[in-house]
Each structure stands twice: as C-alpha cells, then as structure tokens.
Specification:
This protein has 163 residues and is of the alpha+beta class. Helix content is 44%, strand content 11%. A four-stranded mixed beta sheet has the order 2-1-3-4, with helices on one face. The chain is globular, with a radius of gyration of 18 Å.
C-alpha cells in the first residue's frame, strides 16, 4: 500500500490553506481537493483519516463531507469520469434519458467503472447550469448540454482512440 501522506510540495500547499482560515477544519474542502488531486482524482483508503488528522477533525466528519459532495470520490474513477445531472430542470429536459442511454452504451450503472477503466458514470443532482439542461460533465470539464447522438459519437471516438 502506498504511503498516506502529502509530499513536501503538497504539504506546503496544505499549510498555506490552513493559514487562510481561523481553524484548520475550515480548510477541509480545499484540503480534500488537494488530496484528491495528488491521488489521481480520488481518495484512496486511508486518506480520509490522514486529512482528518491534518484538519484536526474527526474521521466521521471527513467521511460525511466526502459522501455528501459529489466532487469527492472514494473509488477510483475511470479515465473519463462522466457526471449526469438528473435534478428537476435537467430531469424535465431529458437528464434521466441521458443517464439511461449512457448506462446502456457503457454497460454500467452510476457509481461503477467500465472493466477497461475507460469510463465511470455518476448521477449528480446539480451542475449549476440549469439553463443548458440536460447536462453532462466529463472529468472536471465545463457542464455541457448534450444530445444522445453527441454522446454516441463521443463514446465511439473515445473508444477508437483507446484513451
């Protein structure tokens, strides 16, 4: 198992974050972002406890934050992590159909990754761009309005490249 600790550079970034807040726990969200960035887009086992110790808070508090916010992941995402909004505006504009189409095309359900590690799928409740519904985001990109044909083209091109 890899060591659960920031390297020197990341540790300095964390210290700079702590300096911006009255209490270390107030820096929890940006420290989680830092930890996730340092681990390839997710928080491997043990990192929740490490961040709790750094932020001087409880493991339960950190776990609550990780499981509440959809931007934190405790499972390894696919190379292309797809988030589909199904809240009311997106739902009314076809968000559920987009999600169902992706499930069918990729052969996975939300919360899972394709066997080749290329795609992971997540259902989210708001991507904060309701005027463009239905929305899909890949990795940390910008929310985009999508059609089923656009999705099919993107999946086919991505699979053809193998990337």
């Amino acid at each position: 198992m890899a060591e659960v600790a920031f390297n020197d550079k990341a540790r300095k970034e964390a210290e700079a974050l702590f300096a911006r807040y009255p209490r270390k726990v107030n820096a929890l969200l940006p420290v989680l972002h830092l930890a996730q960035r340092e681990n390839g887009g997710w928080l491997p086992p043990g990192w929740d406890a490490y961040v709790a110790e750094l932020c001087e808070t409880t493991l339960n508090h950190v776990r609550g934050v990780i499981t509440f916010y959809n931007m934190y992941r405790d499972t390894a995402p696919g190379k292309h992590h797809i988030m589909v909004c199904t809240c009311l505006p997106c739902g009314l504009c076809g968000g559920a159909e987009v999600l169902e189409h992706l499930e069918h095309r990729l052969g996975i359900h939300p919360g899972n990754t394709t066997p080749d590690g290329l795609f992971s799928l997540e259902e989210v409740q708001c991507l904060a761009a309701c005027d463009k519904a239905p929305l899909m985001v890949v990795n940390d990109g910008v929310p985009e309005q999508v059609t089923l044909d656009q999705i099919d083209t993107w999946i086919d091109q991505t699979r053809a490249k193998g990337a």
